[in-house]
Design brief:
The complex is a heterodimer. By secondary structure, chain A is mainly alpha-helical. Chain A has two domains: about 40 residues; about 240 residues, MetI-like (MetI-like fold, Orthogonal Bundle), CATH 1.10.3720.10. Helix content of chain A is about 75%, strand content about 0%. Chain A is built from twelve helices and two strands, in the order H-H-H-E-E-H-H-H-H-H-H-H-H-H. In chain A, a hairpin with a 4-residue loop joins strand 1 and strand 2. A two-stranded antiparallel ribbon of chain B has the order 1-2. By secondary structure, chain B is mainly α. Chain B has two domains: about 70 residues, no CATH class; about 170 residues, MetI-like (MetI-like fold), CATH 1.10.3720.10. Chain B has 13 helices and two strands; from the N terminus they run H-H-H-E-E-H-H-H-H-H-H-H-H-H-H. Classes of the chains: A mainly alpha, B mainly alpha. At the A-B interface, helix 1, helix 2, helix 4, helix 5 and helix 6 of A face helix 1, helix 2, helix 4, helix 5 and helix 6 of B.
Chain lengths: ~290, ~280
């Protein structure tokens, strides 16, 4: 590829293609700057310590977003307490305990491909019928978290499986030659080696879960009070942005403020996960 | 306890947990079908296409205008995002100097992570007023196409870039040795060699565009009609579910489940199509 970069373009057609590609890149970068400038200019003056720590007043036109922050964190916690063990177990089974073409593995992979494409609003309808009505959880943070767990499961499994598959087979053979059980090989070798990829997958999943609105509209609901338990309905940040911009006249500024907080959270999550996975990698692998 | 016994136990319990993915998919279908049943018990399923319109209180559930709006918005978004996304992928892989390529790739990843409701908010407060100046009402099929295009562009670009990276270096060397122009090597050798990955990315982007709810709901205006032009307001299937689910009952509620069943079946069809293309390769 570097050889390619050094190739000087001499022909007219090359210049046309090059110009089109540079123009497209400039449009995309320009759009990004435009979007960020709008977010910052409309939201920044609204964001303050009070905004983060007080309850909303007058449907969110005034006051803060404290209950939404709490609801978001509770929903995320439920989602990942359920989805991480399930996702990790599935990824381990798919990559370490079965042949790629066994019927079970094929059925699971097909299901995962479909689940990854199912629209989030469909997860919302399913969660509403299954968790809220059939299991009797009603509009609650618990129902929202469980439905969201269903949605992020395929993302977690795919990234974890790819991470485990990237560990060289030599390591597995070495572990087997040393008489390690498969459990020990997993616990002390494969999982630590795949840790950066697993963490990156988790980060991707948290990002998707933080951004999600449609799943939670009909599962965890709209209520903008501080939730007292996980069986209470609660409004997450993304739903709050939606409600402020669509249903509350004069709520745009608060919506931009909330959007800015949500984007900051997404950036923090990504940064933390990258730092964590780097440290984990350094500790486990250099000692191994 | 012998080690082999532990191994078998471990393998079986992991298999059981892994099967939950299949169980979840079956459960979703079971519930969607079960909740949809009410919409067809006392009427023919064709009511979703030949009723006079979408008048839930009168028991008329014509989904056609919304189905058409979903398809048009998706096709429009793809028409914009696929060429732009491919250009962005070529930019990262070949045209940009190395540091700029890394920065641009990060920017694409950031754009991919922005929540749909944030795109919707921006579309509603910035894009829609701009379109209103050209042709009212502003909240329109065009706005939906543009916002969807922005949302799926990073998916197309990042998957195409990953596919281009797997093209063997010898392919360009061969092209250069033949004296081909840069354009010929890129368009006639590199892109065709990476086409399986690119098509997979486009199919992924298609399912995202078909299923996107919040951003489209916020910018499309949500009038149930067959649009006469791209400046007309439309309502897509997903937006209809989000708008009416809160108060829908009986056959009305069931017909919302019917539309979600349709969307899910389309996703299954796209996944099957992707697998066939991959198998051919």
């Amino acid at each position: 590829m570097t050889a390619w970069r050094s190739l000087a373009s001499r022909r007219y057609s090359d210049h046309v293609l090059g110009a089109l590609v540079w123009l497209s890149a400039a449009i995309i970068a320009g759009f990004f700057v435009w979007l960020l400038a709008d977010m910052a200019s409309q939201g920044l003056e609204r964001v303050s310590w009070d905004f983060l720590t007080t309850e909303p007043e007058r449907s969110g036109r005034r006051g803060g977003i404290a209950p939404m922050l709490v609801s978001t964190l509770v929903v995320l916690a439920i989602t990942f307490v359920v989805a991480v063990p399930l996702g990790l177990a599935t990824a381990i089974w798919l990559s370490e305990f079965t042949r790629a073409n066994s019927p079970s593995a094929a059925a699971i992979r097909f299901s995962l491909d479909v689940l990854a494409g199912v629209p989030s609003i469909v997860y919302g309808l399913f969660g509403s019928a299954f968790f809220c009505v059939w299991l009797g959880l009603g509009y609650s943070l618990l129902a929202g978290g469980l439905t969201l767990a269903c949605m992020v499961l395929p993302i977690l499994i795919r990234t974890s499986e790819a991470g485990l598959a990237a560990v060289p087979d030599d390591w597995r053979q070495g572990a087997a030659a040393l008489g390690l059980t498969r459990w020990a090989a997993l616990r002390y070798l494969l999982l630590p080696a795949a840790a950066p990829a697993l963490t990156a997958g988790l980060m991707l999943g948290i990002g998707r879960a933080l951004a999600e609105t449609a799943v939670l509209l009909f599962t965890s609901g709209y209520v903008d009070r501080m939730p007292a338990s996980w069986l209470d309905s609660g409004r997450v940040l993304a739903v709050h942005i939606f409600d402020l911009s669509m249903n509350v006249t004069g709520g745009d500024q608060a919506a931009y403020g909330t959007a800015l907080v949500l984007l900051a959270l997404l950036l923090v999550v990504n940064g933390l996960a990258i730092a964590l996975s780097d440290r984990w990698l350094a500790r486990r692998i250099t000692h191994a | 306890m012998s080690p082999s016994h532990t191994e078998v136990w471990l393998s079986r319990s992991l298999w059981l947990l892994a099967s939950s993915a299949v169980a979840l998919l079956l459960l979703i279908f079971l519930f969607l079908i079960n909740e949809s049943r009410l919409a067809v018990v006392d009427a023919h399923w064709l009511r979703f296409f030949n009723s006079p319109g979408w008048f839930p209180s009168a028991g008329q559930f014509n989904l056609w205008p919304m189905l058409l709006a979903t398809v048009l918005a998706t096709v429009g978004a793809l028409a914009l995002a696929v060429p732009m996304g491919l250009a962005a992928a070529l930019f990262v892989s070949f045209f940009a100097p190395a540091p700029l390529a890394t920065t641009f790739r990060r920017l694409l990843m950031l754009l991919a992570g922005i929540p749909s409701v944030v795109y919707g908010l921006w579309g509603l407060t910035v894009l829609v007023p701009l379109i209103t100046r050209v042709a009212p009402p502003g909240a329109s099929l065009l706005a939906a196409m543009l916002i969807l295009a922005v949302m799926i562009l990073p998916t197309v670009a990042l998957t195409s870039e990953a596919a281009l990276r797997t093209v063997p270096v010898n392919y360009w060397r061969g092209g250069q040795a033949l004296g081909l122009s840069a354009q010929a090597i890129l368009l006639k050798i590199a892109l065709p060699a990476a086409r399986t990955g690119i098509v997979a990315g486009v199919l992924l982007a298609t399912t995202r565009a078909l299923g996107e709810t919040m951003a489209v709901l916020m910018v499309a205006g949500n009038v149930v009609q067959v649009p006469g032009s791209i400046f007309d307001s439309v309502r897509v299937l997903t937006a209809n579910i989000a708008l009416e689910m809160a108060y829908a009952t009986d056959a009305h509620r069931a017909s919302l489940y019917v539309s979600s069943l349709m969307l899910t079946l389309v996703v299954v069809a796209i996944v099957l199509l992707g697998r066939r293309l991959e198998a051919k390769q």
